[in-house]
Amino acid sequence: MQDKNVLNLQEVIYMKRKKLVKTADKHGIASKDTLKCSQELDKLIVEYQKYLAN
């Protein structure tokens, strides 16, 4: 059974990924907004990977 926090983190990652795609479509892949969103997504994924490693 998955922990409630992990399910929440998965949802946050899913939503951030959707936001990243929309931002890239609107502002371009190299825009500051897109890069910022990508970095935020990277941090969430690293957090999730750390959880899975335990």
UniProtKB/TrEMBL annotation:
Pfam families: SpoOE-like (PF09388). SUPFAM superfamilies: BAS1536-like (SSF140500). InterPro entries: HLH_DNA-bd_sf, Spo0E-like, Spo0E-like_phosphatase, Spo0E-like_sf. Gene3D superfamilies: Helix-loop-helix DNA-binding domain. This is Aspartyl-phosphate phosphatase Spo0E family protein. It comes from Virgibacillus kekensis.
